[in-house]
Design goal:
Layout (H helix, E strand, L loop, with lengths): L4 H12 L3 H20 L4 E3 L3 E8 L3 E3 L6 E3 L3 E8 L1 H8 L2
Antiparallel strand pairs: 1-2, 2-5, 3-4
Helix pairs in contact: 1-2
Length: 94
């Protein structure tokens, strides 16, 4: 099961002792910073966690399903994640 934003807020609230509204604001602010940084084309690196990278995809070949016609799709940016060695060890040793 995935960790929801509400669960992240609750975790911050419990671990740091901030009120729920401040915990929510903290989580929202962090996520906005990450989104804005990635949207500007920059990578986001978090020590001992990993790195979110923006990669440019070239124009892939595609097919129009109804007509079967070959077509070239628009190039696009995608976000990838590469976990740190420490995170990889923690995931694989539990």
């Amino acid at each position: 099961m995935a960790l929801t934003k509400a669960q992240k807020v609750e975790s911050v609230q419990n671990q740091i002792g901030l009120p729920k509204d401040r915990s929510s604001e903290t989580v929202e602010t962090l996520l906005e910073i990450i989104k804005n940084t990635l949207a500007s084309g920059e990578d986001v690196s978090i020590s001992r966690f990993g790195k979110f990278c923006v990669k440019e995809k070239t124009e892939p070949k595609g097919r129009n399903s109804p007509t079967g016609e070959d077509m070239i799709l628009e190039p696009r940016n995608v976000v990838t994640f590469k976990c740190s060695g420490e995170l990889r060890k923690r995931i694989n040793w539990q």
